[in-house]
Amino acid sequence: LMITRTRVGLVIQAALTHPDMVECLGHNVPRVFMMVFGAGTGLAGLAGVIGGSTFVTEPAMAATLGSVIFVVVVVGGLGSLSGAFLASVLIGVIQTFAVALDHSFLSLAQAAGLELSQTLQDNAVLKLTLSQVAPILPYLFLVLILIFRPKGLLGTRES
Predict the structure, then answer these.
(1) What does the alpha-carbon distance between residue 11 and residue 19 come to, in Å, rounded to a whole number?
(2) Tens of pLDDT along 89-109?
(3) Per-domain residue ranges of the chain
């Protein structure tokens, strides 16, 4: 809201797309970029202070969370803050329910009344429960979004 409705936000947006014009209007474009960078790093530092004292920190935290953040951004749509929010909530809910449910393809087929041969009943893939597959569900969701909606859920493509 601050970027789209305030004067400072409009100057930042204009400096990104037309830096020469913004400079002609009397704004110091390198200073604008420095201020945006400083504000972003300040917010990242604040998040680190709050997160570091609240959550358990470990050296591999970036590798664990970085890939999920990438999935959230791509699924939500590049350039869409509301899409990223929607994707993060959706992925969180999907993973939470997947961990809580203890069903397998085999149990679902038997509940549907399908008669499976002994070979299929002994199949290890069909015996996998949803809670065992839960860690890869965001990545499967990413693949499905990229196949059926390449822009993401609420993404806009710049031309």
Answers:
(1) 10
(2) 999 998 888 888 888 888 888
(3) 1-57, 59-152
